[in-house]
Amino acid sequence: MSRIDWCSEDDPQDGYTPTYFPPRVSRRKPDWLLRREAPGYHGLLDEVYTALHADSRRLAMMGARSIIDKAISKKIGDHGSFVAGLDALQNANLLSIQERPIIEAAFEAGSAAMHRGHQPTADSLNTVIDIVERVIHAEVLEEKAKELAAATPKRPPRTNKTKGSKQQENK
Fold first, then answer.
1. In terms of residue numbers, what domain contains 52?
2. Residues near 150 by Cβ (< 8 Å), separated by ≥ 6?
3. Side-chain half-sphere of 92: how many Cα atoms within 13 Å?
4. Is 128 a domain residue?
5. Alpha-carbon span 111 to 118, nearest angstrom
6. Is residue 157 part of a domain?
7. Is there a contact between 38 and 135 (Cβ–Cβ < 8 Å)?
8. pLDDT per residue over 17-70, tens digit each?
9. Span 67-74, mean pLDDT?
10. Which uninterrupted H or E stretch holds 3?
């Protein structure tokens, strides 16, 4: 739904800016988040999604930056700066060369909103939220994979027969 406000004293040359309900940056929480599978992030994520629903783009972007920072600290501790945290993640083989620029772009967008008053577009904000969801979901899947591996029955041990002996038995 959209709403356009009009007043008889408005200049018709100015045009009209519609207000959308829900806002264009609004989005549903992912199923894994609804199942409360991201311990330690729920409060921040709830606030980010609330900011999205209110079209508070800067606040949502700042919250996304905070979540990235928290995810780094949760993995390897506080290293004093974002770059030092990413370096530590890479040194521990927890961050690939391909993933680093993706996370850096999201963090920088959050920094621009926080420190330079940048108003992100709906597309750039949604990209950052996609990146944040990916980072948190990877952490969730890592834990789920451990649980799955522990619950999966182990393969029975193989006998010491070789291929040649199987062929001999078949003759």
1. 29-152
2. none
3. 11
4. yes
5. 9
6. no
7. no
8. 766 666 666 788 888 888 888 888 999 999 999 999 888 999 999 999 999 999
9. 95
10. strand 2-3
Give the DSSP H/E element, type plus range, for residue 75: helix 57-76
Residue 57 near residue 120 (C-beta atoms within 8 A): yes
Taking only the tens place, the pLDDT of each residue in 57-66 is 999 999 999 9
Residue 108 included in any domain: yes
Domain assignment present for residue 54? The answer is yes
Mention every residue, 6+ apart, whose C-beta is less than 8 A from residue 144. 37
Query: How far is the C-alpha of 115 from the C-alpha of 23, rounded, in Å?
Result: 24
d(CA 120, CA 62): 11
The letter for the amino acid at 81 is S
What would the pLDDT profile of 98-156 be if each residue is shown by its tens digit? Answer: 999 999 999 999 999 999 999 999 999 999 999 999 999 999 999 999 999 999 999 99
% residues pLDDT > 70 (the chain): 86
Q: Summarize the confidence of residues 87-96 as an average pLDDT.
A: 93
Domain count, the chain: 1
Residue 52 near residue 25, CB atoms below 8 Å: yes
Q: Spell out the residues 6+ positions from residue 24 whose beta carbon is closer than 8 angstroms to its own.
A: 55, 122
